[in-house]
């Protein structure tokens, strides 16, 4: 489960394009930031992804992304040229391939490493899809298999790509777009893979006498969560539609995108997470064994020229987390990266632990906590704006580390306060105790141990 949003420059407050994504994953699935430097690779080099091994490209671009602790690929990320991508799970009548292969997150990272802009990203991603397909279990504790949709953006343009197996359809973004866990490209695609329509006709999913509708042909109409997925898509669309009509001086910018990612529904800003969580952009799981919740978020401002992307990231649920600056050319704060062992600092679990204690007291505790976190984000924006354009990576990394430490103090204070509050029933029943009891090891050691249990499948 995820939601991804894009507003192109002509509709934003400052002429930049704004990308935003919430990555919704199963509870307890920690998600960390990873920076990958640009590199050259010798001919014949092979690359290991989550489940598969394939030929490496001769040259790969630097990128920064957020990835679940056990996965090679990214849920969302941005490269040195400003190409930014987010993915979504989608469910088709065409069964997803359960055999080990390339996950949607792997396709996303491969595209960031191999493409410079949205148009090239479209070609790279669909080329990888047609050559290698998509396959594999996409959850660490559940049998979850799905196809993928993607939103690609740079400072000038954007693409929505929806897939089913090796088939795909793409629509150019005009103005703004949002995607969720549901097919939405109908007959309005700009590009489509060879054979997609013929395949749908052969399966009895499309009447060839009618215009081809990609979503109608490939959507699984019996998917149990289809209603909640459509509700989140409508929520994100309404959030942007209500703001792009505002004059530029009050239109879409970083804060508006953060607000969209924190959306709990109309009038629900200070309501505790409840049974409607799967229908909200800021997602809070309802059940420990079947629900999903937001694990990490990112907002990126993209300029049409050579100006580096402005990146803001958060860990855990965005409604109870701050957004801090990140850069492609310097490492994120050490506690925001995957810890090597359980003894190393782990900001994701620190924030997650605080959030779990705050959730039952959300109406009373969340507004003041969010005000402190937002004040830190505003201060961070001022400090970043004061940096010289040629500020070395080390200086920016030091600033990021200082801000992360400041946020850690806010998180620790909020957790200490919540620990003193009297217990309060959770509307989701025993959800919080259940997920806390199932807390796994999510270190780099654990990731390598898990990978060692599954030999890479050559592609």
TrEMBL record:
Residues 449-459 have a biased composition (Low complexity). One of its GO terms (molecular function) is cysteine-type exopeptidase activity. It is an enzyme of class 3 (hydrolase). Keywords: Dipeptidase, Hydrolase, Protease. Gene3D superfamilies: Penicillin V Acylase, Chain A (3.60.60.10). Residues 416-459 are annotated as: Disordered. The keyword Nucleotide-binding does not apply. GO terms for biological process: proteolysis. Belongs to the peptidase C69 family. This is Dipeptidase. It comes from Pseudooceanicola albus.
